[in-house]
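Dear colleague,

Following up on Tuesday's group meeting, I ran the structure prediction for the two-component complex that the binding team flagged. I've pasted the input sequences exactly as they went in, so you can double-check that nothing got truncated or mislabelled along the way. The structure tokens for the whole assembly follow below. Feel free to forward this to whoever is handling the docking comparison.

Inputs:
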Amino acid sequence: MELASFLQILDSTVRLATPLLFACIAGLYSERSGVFDIGLEGKMLVAAFAAASASYATGNVWIGTAAGIGAALLFAAIHGLASITFRGNQLISGVAINFLASGLTVVLGSTWFKLGGQTPALTDGARFADITLPFARPATESLSGVGFVSGFYSHVISGHSILVYVALLLVPATWWLLYRTRFGLRLRAVGENPAAVDTAGVSVVALRYSAVAITGLLCGLAGAYMSMGLSAGFLREMTAGRGYIALAALIFAKWRPWYALAACMLFGLLDAVAIRFQNIDIGLLVIPVQFTQALPYILTVIILAGFVGKAIPPRAGGEPYVKER
Amino acid sequence: MAQATTGGRQATAAPLSPYAIELKGISKSFGPVRANRDINIAVPRGTIHGIIGENGAGKSTLMSILYGFYRADAGTILINGHETAIPDSQSAIRAGIGMVFQHFKLVQNFTVLENVILGAEDGALLNTSLARARKVLGELSREYDLDVDPDALVEDLSVGHQQRVEILKALYRQADILILDEPTGVLTPEEADHLFRILQGLKDQGKTVILITHKLREIMAVTDNVSVMRRGTMVGTVKTSQTSPEALAELMVGRKVLLEVEKKPAAPGRLVLDVRDLRVKDDAGVERLKGISLSIRAGEILGIAGVAGNGQSELLEALGGIADATGHVVMNGVELPLAGRRNNGQTRRAAGISHVPEDRQSLGLIMDFTAWENIGFGYHNAPEYQRNALLMNNAALRADTERKMATFDVRPPIPTLAAKSFSGGNQQKIVVAREIERNPDLLLVGQPTRGVDIGAIEFIHKQILGLRDAGKAILLVSVELDEIMGLADRILVMFDGRIMGERDPEKTNERELGLLMAGITETKGA
């Protein structure tokens, strides 16, 4: 394979991994606090829609981003209310959120834009611009005759929108927050044994709500990136299961931030390969494109079925906290 | 409560009152249940104060009020003579109260240090908190003989060490008053002794300790004063030196209780059970039972003593048809299958064996099922419970349950109540009723009185002795030496999957049995 296409694949790996990474880290906060969240998908979707709509209406990508975050936070609040305050079943609440998001985006989209559920294409000011880092060649320049280091820097490291860098910085930031701060200690504790937190005089409810709010915020960024970075507008069901893949990556990473980065990059790579190559001819037989496209989902199933080592979720995960006598 | 200060830490500066804690007129109801009724108690500073009472007497509710888990409906709390409102755990901690719960409140995959600082961090960043905690923990460990590795993960610690972490947590929060709820339930005798030395050390340093327990011996051994609760009321506070276990038991239950069971001499008859070279391997392939041979005759109780985890559970499971084993077990002259499809509880029951398992909540009962359903389990095919070939006669089963509940004094006697709604003692009575009422030739019984209150203990012991006097064979496994020595006609001591020796309960003592339990055979000529 020539260097140019190799670099192109890595470039799209980073782009495609970004929404996964946002969603995965989003899930990490919620699940570390003991609130399981299969509603990542729904929150991403509703955020992507809100972001694209607001951005189209105002022509301002930042207003779009704020709208996306707002929508995801609202959905996170619903999940929090159902699973923390009312001690409902967290899986059912998550499923409900996914259905709600899926239906609501299409209904509102059709009503507002009359385009069958999608938003009109966003113009430049309403999208995230790519950032060219210092010393990097512009992305438009041809890749031929470029050295690996220079090419890697210019096309894989440089030339992404701001959210890509935010997502990458999120990984060390999350690690630091989890393992070096009071908030992180309490967050990890409340997902393992809320009774320990409660008897230490710390509010279990407040901790879990803040974790769920962070999840909403990050899902908002994931959705905003999908509709205003990765694409130029909202398409119905555009998250296409990425929320579930992020969940699989989270389990694969055993709820740890650096491993989450690696897992999301792996899924991004699979996605990038599927897009870059159509039918892969390996001499004896041709691997159909459908197979490469299905790979991330197949991997998800394998991971969720527990084939890659035992992943132990936070012990108190999925269970509402009830003070015992 | 107008002048109530929330967590009056200033009170410790100039103690006016000789009492660390005074509770005045505390009442608390849960719906129609009056858990605490007009409780008055005064705990002098620098003493160890015992609180005893049967399960459901209201001890835990009272301590939960003191620790801010519940708010009392009426009454006042005085800490060091100052009226103090304790609306939440944070206020209790500020008021200098520390609590060691029966079920530890520790994060299993955290280190000791992390557990200690949780909720008591110095700032938003952890490194300063951790450094200070390490220093303070070192000092506390030396001062109170509370040796724990600060960097060990809690899940790797023994139960005794985990309890020390809980105590350290309280001391790190500068607790002056330490409440321990049933602290010895999960400890070995040595660990319990160590705990009592720690408590003594705390007392010597001027701390006040409240010890909640149902074990009279512990109350007698370590407390200065003892308060007795019964059905939500405080029946009295006495100086420990001026009372006796018998008097306390009577106060607890409200009637005379026989701590020593009255036992007629045994009249062993024909051989009922003969076990030869019984071996059991666990899932990991490790041999847990290493060739046990024993026999039990009709009309005798064979007691198995030992520290938990030395093969007693495996012995019961092999004999009860739960675990696969090798060797020979002959019951009434018929060899029993020890492995394969026919090695199960059903064939054991058919052979005349009943089993009261050690862990009643997982093996003896289905907690979400009703009492009458639980009474039917294992005997659901009995002809008297059948309406016809297809349908069960549930009405007959319920009627039978009502009768058994009356015979065994199960409270409340409501067959439609879920098993989990009964207290530990009454759950055990349900299991014992189901098994004993079948009139087995051999009763296997494990830890019959674990988590059972004193009134029910007496009752269950009487039932077991009654069965023996009716000419049945009984295998009794218990970690409570008192129980073994009180009931058994012969005692076998198990250690590491083997039988260390047989003793006559009339001619042995706790010390000798304790050595055998530790795997030490007596030196020659001693």
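Chain B has 17 helices and 21 strands.

Cheers,
M.
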